[in-house]
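Predict both folds.
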Amino acid sequence: MRIAVGGIRHESNTFSPLHTEYTDFWRLYGADAQAEGATALAAEQGAELVPTLVAYAYPGGVVRAAAYRRLKDELLAALEAALPVDGVYLDLHGAMHVEGVGDGETDLSQAVRDLVGPEVPISVSLDLHGNISPALVANVNALTGLRTAPHRDGTETRCRALALLVRAIRECLDLEPVLIKVPLLLSGEAVMTDVEPARSLYARLPAMAQEPGILDASLLVGCAWTDGPYTTASVIVVGAGDAHAARKQAQSLARDVWAARHAFRFGHETAPPEEAVSLAVAAAEAPVYITDSGDNVTAGGAGDTTWMLQALLAQGAQDALVAGLFDPVAVERCAEAGVGSALTLAIGGRCDPQHHASVTVTGRVQHLGRGAHEGDGAPTMATLVCGGVTVVVCVDRRPFAERATIAQAGVDPDRCKIVVVKQGYLFPDLVDHAPRVIMALTPGATDLELERLPYRHVPRPIYPLDRGLAWKPCCASSSTGNR
């Protein structure tokens, strides 16, 4: 049994002022392109994995057309060289938006289908923030999505997608994925899977996949910052020889998701930026983590808006850290000055000036450094102490999702009173060591106040943009975008 493995994975934010280039992608070829955890599973199942290309990039702006074409051509060339194969596994995200193309997953899956023909089964793994088109579902045989947010089950999900494919090949199963698009626009921060109602909805999925005639069930909440025609929540149920059972289960879950639309809520305390700082300054706990949710680099934010920095400086916050700001010019200026030097410079507001301007600060360079895996060379991070506020500026959009990453900037976050990071919900390593978390509702490309965003392409009507909407799932068939 020969299974080709590949994929292009990106979460695209169409509100970002940036673009995602070819060089922004990590590109894995040959043995490096094996899906994480898949090698052992394939060995157990007696399958031979044939790697092609796996490419992925941090969430960011729309993918450049030339970058996508180059990656797509590389993947297809490797796949063609691997033929014949018994199946194809694609590691995708679900919210890749390509300049001049639109939905990248639909385009890529169609190209793969055209190459391998109609008889070769294709299985796909997806992020739960994917925006799924009916055409993508029609192009493949099985789809399965992540079930945790913050994400903890990437390896498990990829192995599940591969296991579905192996079973389909070995048992000659006629798979039928059923899709129901729920007209619901949700930010990822409103759907943390350890918080109700998402916790109960996602807890149902494993049991649904054990129902007679059902192989898998997924709930994808979508990416609200990809302004496209498929940006909604999606229910996907993969049936095996029993289309009626798959439709019934999909309708049941879709009804319950819609019924819970008013109950989705943020998993962290929220406040406007100035109030978030006031609460943190007055808090008895330490460190208080504040997430700059409107400039969330893990969802495609530019990473250089200065709302939180300005609020910290204006309120005279002490022992505060901003980790970090995307500003390669500021890093260069700090490197030229050297550790221990004082300087005045403008930081931030270069990429996304429409949301906030740069801030002029005077400070002392405390640290110049590089990430743990960045080798030698010029500094990629500079730490600037500006009175009671320490700012880490970076040459790239860096999420600082772990305390060890913050420590690489020469700062111990556990010794700070306030730590600001450019995230939405706080990532596991940080939240496990945060006595208090406040999500600042800042404007920006990842604004959690969805009504403030200039949507042009999402399907209408859709909740919450159209609050009077009444909806119920109709029969899940080809008319609703299913196979």
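Second protein follows, with its predicted structure tokens after the sequence.
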Amino acid sequence: MPDVTRTLRLLGPLVGDGVAQLRAQWRGHALTLIGLVWGAAAVVLLLSIGAGFNQFLDMGVAKTGDRYVMIWGEYTTTESGGTRPGRPIRLDVDDLARAKAGTPSAARVGAEIQRYGIAVETPRKTRSGVVAAVTPEIGTIQAHVVERGRFIDADDERLARHVAVIGASLAPLFFGDEDPLGRVVQLDGVPFEVVGVLAEKGFQLMTNYDVHDNMVFVPLSAGRALFGVGRHLERLYLDPRRLEDEPAVRAEVMAALRPAHHVDAADAEAIRSMSVPEVMEPTRRIGFGLQVMLGFIGTVTLMMSAVGVANLMIALVQERRMELAMRRACGARRGDLVLQLLVETVVVVLAGGMFGIALGLAGVGLLGLLPLPAELPSPSVSPSVLVTTFFVLTSIGLAAGIVPARLASQVDPAAAMRVT
């Protein structure tokens, strides 16, 4: 404990000596500092690019819902209920009721049918678009935010009202500067009153036919009549109460739907399921691997600069043998000289590193000002990026100082001060 206290007392003066040495010999350190600046800037910039990519993934998923389970029908692959394999499974409105009643682990259950190529028309504009017939729960499940008006509600669904909620990009396209609320939009010639406009989402990572900004949303009951699909549905959406409830939700909804469609429990293909966390897991691993790879490249660049620091400090030890011998003669321990050289090396590395971090932050800022496409992630500086960079700098400084520190500790006062 006394040695630890003594070491802590020495740190302050040694840091001051290191700064003084750097000021006195900055010309000799110039090339080394330039390498450190470049290396630290590379670490910050590359880690920020990796962090930006991961943040981009999270934001892209959050715009469409980041935890739901989606269910849809396919074809049977085993004999069941006296029928041969290959029987199509088509979900219907009764399945929506079954899912709601049979999945206590789900906070909400919704349904959707999408159709593309629907003629969307107003007096101002006509174009082909995507229309989604949805239940009110889809507004929460798919993270829709209404900027003006409201989303589809339970009365709209119960009464099969001809009301529509339009995506953010459709409002100026079909209505210009006019307020779209209360106006009529024709969907394949059928009039629907606009009751809401969604807030802009921009780029989405998960879509079916189009992004939500370009879609029209109508009540499921009205949409089934518009599309002429009778009681059939395309997909069910279930939002787990907690993220860890996702496996339970899958098991419960399958138990609720399979008996009604005479599907064998071993037939995993007849009724399919997909969850957002499941789909995103490989992508997140790729993002993490990318960040590690970019960080490694930046660290290698910094380590190459550290070799120059080590060589410089070794040369300085040879030049300062007399000074180090005097310190030993005056009572300094070998450990004190080791600590002195380690601190001085870390001061040099951190001095160049701080300038490099500032340069890297400036580079990230400049990249953020560029008009990048929505599909291209911008670099993002997070506290973890700065902490990682500082940790790398400190570690490299200590590593670069080991050899010079050992040489300094081996200085023999008598031999160094002997006059020949």
